[in-house]
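Mods, move this if it's the wrong board.
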Amino acid sequence: MEIASRPGWRRQTTRVIVGVCLATLLLGGISVSQTAKRRNDPDLPSAEFHITRLAFGTNRRANSRGFNTPMWAVDYPMAEVNFLPALSRLTNLSVAPAVEEDIRHFELTDERLFDYPFLWLQQPAAAGWNPTAGEAEALREYLARGGFLLVDDFHGESEYYAFRNSIARVFPDREIIEIPDNDPMMSIFFDLNDRLQIPGERHLTFGGGAAMSGPPHWLGIYDEKQRLIVGINYNIDMGDAWEHADDPYYPAPMTGQAYRLGVNYVIYAMTH
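Not the wrong board. Structure tokens:
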């Protein structure tokens, strides 16, 4: 696996206090007064923040608590059901309810996607995500206009190379690098000092130990202004930790890490 690093790279850390989150939501695109109106239109956001899943063609299916879903919807709906209320309690964000009609999913060529600044791509390698030229162009435009892509749940070198080849269709000239410790995303809400590995349920062995493909990597792709525009969880399964947050056998430290990481990604995405 080849991952670039920038040991000398520095950015001034930006801290966002809870009380100003709503005032700085530059990408939300709607005011509090508009929220109630938009709840009546399923094509528009019902709140400033939704978890919006990237839907794409795949022949693979997943079973999540009795829901048989395509692989891009793995961990649905319990990941959203558990994480979104926590995000609402911890911040002043206007967060969409964790109910089926408010859990959005769009293909890259769907223009409604531009109303939603946070896009979640699950299982890109196992599900065979391979954007067409048109989809790659749409994703470039989405990110250039201020959107944020979070990639989660792929493991091992073969899946890394598969994802790297797919994202290269979007950004052939941009590197995937390790997110440095002093990046604003690492401290914008929680201080993420410990890069504790977050396993999926399937990776847990007796006693709660993690048996995964390799060490965790918190990767990213940056734009020309050094803004993180793609967050990449490699050898990490944050969605599973959200899904199983209420399961007593899932280790609490890993659940906490997943929640802290998720909140930081969201606050960074909505303020940069």
